[in-house]
Amino acid sequence: MRIYAAAVYLFLYIPIGIIALFSFSAGRNASEFAGFSLKWYGIALHNPFVVEALRTSFTVAASSAILAAVFGTMAALALQGMTGRIKVLFDALIYIAVMIPGIVIGISTLIAIVTVFGWLNPLIAAVWPWDGPAPQLAMGLGSLIAAHTLFNMALVIIIVRARIAGMDRSFTEASADLYATPFGTFRQITLPLILPGILAGFLLSFTFSFDDFIIAFFVAGANTTLPIYVFSSIRRGVTPEINAIGTMVLTLSLILLVTAQGFLQRKRKG
Amino acid sequence: MSDTPDHISPQKFMAELMRYRKGSVSRRHFLGVTGLGMATTVLGSAMPGLITRPAFAAGSIGDSVVLATWPNYHDPASFEAFTAATGAAVQVNVFGSNEEMLAKLQAGGSGWDVFVPTNYTITTYVEEGIIDPLDMSKLPNYDAASFDPRFAGPGTVDGKLYAASKNWGTTGMAVNTSQTNGRVLTSWKDFWDITKAEFSGRTTVHDYQLTTIGNALKSFGYSFNSIDPAELADAEKLLIEVKPHLFAITSDYQPPMRSGDAWLAMCWTGDGKQLNKDIPEISYILGKEGGEIWSDFYAIPKSAPHLDAAYALINFLLDPAINYKEAMFHGQPVADARVDAMMSAEIMADPIIHPAAELLSNLEFGAAATLTDPNRAEVMARFKSA
Amino acid sequence: MRPKLINRLLLAPAGIWFLAMLVLPLAVVLVFSFGERGQSGGYVPAFTFAQYLNLPARWKAFENTLTLAPVGTLIVLLIAYPLAYFLALRANPKWRTLLLILVIVPFWTSILIRSYAWIFILGGRGIPALLDMLGLHNLRLINTPFAVLVGIVYGYLPLMVFPIFVSLERLDKRLLEASADLGSPPWRSFLQITLPLSLPGMATGCMLVFILLMGEFLIPAMLGGGKVFFVGNALVDLFLQSRNWAFGSAVAVALVVVMLVTVTIYMRAMTRWGNGRDDVSLM
């Protein structure tokens, strides 16, 4: 059993080890190790497009995770205890949003945006009252954040609803019996109880958005997120720069994970 | 704001502004190795003003330019030189077919400043309103008289120059002769036959309808540009028959040819030259039935976000001295007589770069109809999903 | 009534979002799927079933997806289960959290970079070169369905390990002890207690992996060399090469329908089977 587990861990870590190993290669070719060097880390961090792609990825992930956490929690609260047609409709929409492959979401969003903007742009130009050319609606950060928020919102609603369902109703009932206002009850009882769910939803959303390639590939317009950058670099012929980026992202994630774990454990003890 | 001292101290060693920018990152480099740099960098650049960007003097073209081009088609050193000279960094996106470039531009928001279309696509780009005529006053390095009209001609539509000649070349096959047991490939028929037999699992074809379908058509003796349904059906049958024997369908075949995974590749001049230079057993052959001769161009999409930088980049790359260095790197012939004049007699006589005239006379330029013909697109798609 | 109004206000942003970013795009796809391809690509309005009638031209992609997705899910399950079992029931509790984190960590590097590592490992200079030294010549791994399956297992293993681990961890270990006390051999305890109780975890994991595999595009694109085609690859091709938005829309509609049908059947079967098992355990 232990040997089997060790073998699976080897399977999981050999590719990562290879990525990390070649990030220290001095050579130009990512598949031949040519002496130890840190130069590709320097090159990656000098590269304005890497920095720009990282910034875009961070902006998109943070914005869509925040939007999803806020709107998703609002919807989850409203759907709590709700029955009737609206609830059935929302359940169906959430199910579809989670089920439909990212590639279909990406493609359908692309053609919908191109079509709708194709109608709107002449309209805006026609009614544009000022001198100079009217602004053109185009795909970009906005469309990417909107597309990611859709999936993330469905995710948050599912997680927060599970949390609400597992919540002990007697707290909120007691609070109401003690004449707390609905908002007071929400702030003092419900919110603290569902907060872990919201945070989990936020983190999952952030991770999904930061790592997503497929949807971004179609709706990011002229913007380059980190996965898009990596994809086009792989097509361009890989230098160890990509390995260096991957190793840095992995190191950063590890530090975040360990820190989060540390916080959680300290809280549990305290 | 605390970044300012870091920006200034390494600067003392460096005269150029570009170096100055690089210097500012050394601290982040160190942090990057420890894993914290990513966060610092991102947070820093997410808040404008925290990290000051180097400012260029009047006439600045901005700090970046985006180029969409083909695999292995540029010397990275040229871009470094361009950035050092102008302050604009070059982002390179690589594509394996004209269809892919067209699809990206049609959907809007490509974000490209310069792209590299092939001769037969330019009229379509003009009709679709995707590109504008070039402003020649911004391209002093373009000397129309020195370009061979056979190759530079398609850049002109309705008397206006829409695209500036980049390179020309042929589409042949690269074969690793150490694997052929002395057999010599001479035709596209040989190409497909050996793939089905001794080379099963070792051949790559382009992920590009024009050449993959075209060279299948040629093996039957049809026109490279045929859109005749019966002829296309023959080509499709052949392609689907060959598919299980292919190593890959890819326009970036240098890595598998170099690693020895692939022994035979549908190949463009420059890739053939690059492979042959490093691995002499790999030779480049033109099919005796004919095949493609092509010329590529620089063009600017209407939607280019950095127009000045786009012109600056094209003009820079058309500088005969730079163009010469590029050609030495990628091995594609140039249509510019000023560049040819710099080339050694040996290179002018190189059979890969400049094949004999009688071999060239057999070849066809791609036709505009193949780009928009729905059948060719569908044959290619069916072949890939078969 | 006030609470109703508040509920509506709370639901409004999510509702608008679903409408604009889900219902509208899907409606556009549905409309386009009855249209025609434009002269130089794109879409021309029309009402025709031609695109749907042309679907058999992509049969192979559907066939690949509908075989490799279940097969991939099954292999992921077979590899993940013993690991989840080890983590939940056998591993030293001191190390359990760390070992679990170690399963997720690879998930944090981009799937692109991880697949790239496999291009190298499975390519001519990787495993085939090693096997060549052992006397096994000319073995080809990269750009085969095998390579795609390796990429799938590598990419989706954590998604399967987690739900199974959770359901096994919840398992009341006294049941196993009682079973052992009653003289039942370990394999019987496993078949009669552990396996049925971990069924919900397996069902969740399989569904997650299966849904993602049905829409897969990247892994076959990177490790299949353009030769192992999923419906996702056919779709990307139709939009980014052939520029045939109408046919692409029809393929997208077909993919969604196939997915909804298979997942619904799967969920029905799972619930029915789950209920059946409950009855057994009650007896």
What's this entry about, in short?
The complex is a heterotrimer of chains A (270), B (386) and C (283). Chain A is mainly α and 270 residues long.
Q: Could you explain how this protein is built, in words?
A:
- The complex is a heterotrimer of chains A (about 270), B (about 375) and C (about 280).
- Chain A is mostly helical and about 270 residues long.
- Chain A has a domain of about 190 residues: MetI-like (MetI-like fold).
- The two termini of chain A are about 35 Å apart.
- Chain B folds into three domains: about 30 residues, no CATH class; about 160 residues, D-Maltodextrin-Binding Protein, domain 2, CATH 3.40.190.10; about 160 residues, Periplasmic binding protein-like II (D-Maltodextrin-Binding Protein, domain 2, 3-Layer(aba) Sandwich), CATH 3.40.190.10.
- In chain B, strands 6, 7, 8, 9, 10 and 11 form a six-stranded mixed β-sheet that branches. A three-stranded parallel β-sheet of chain B has the order 2-1-3. Chain B has a two-stranded antiparallel sheet with strand order 4-5.
- The radius of gyration of chain B is 23 Å and the shape is globular.
- Chain B starts with a helix and ends with a helix.
- Chain C is mainly alpha-helical and about 280 residues long.
- Chain C has two domains: about 30 residues, no CATH class; about 230 residues, Orthogonal Bundle (MetI-like fold), CATH 1.10.3720.
- In chain C, helix 3 runs parallel beside helix 7 and helix 8 packs antiparallel against helix 9.
- In chain C, about 45% of the residues are buried.
- The C terminus of chain C is likely disordered.
- Classes of the chains: A mainly alpha (about 270), B alpha/beta (about 375), C mainly alpha (about 280).
- Chains in contact: A-B, A-C, B-C.
- At the A-C interface, helix 1, helix 3, helix 4, helix 5 and helix 6 of A face helix 1, helix 3, helix 4, helix 5 and helix 10 of C.
Q: How many strands appear in the DSSP assignment of chain C? A: 0
Reading the helices and strands of chain C in chain order gives: HHHHHHHHHHHHH
Query: How many strand elements of chain A?
Result: 0
Distance between the termini of chain C: 49 Å
Radius of gyration of chain C: 24 Å
Greatest contact between two chains:
A-C, 72 and 75 residues
* Outline type of chain A: globular
Give the oligomeric state: heterotrimer
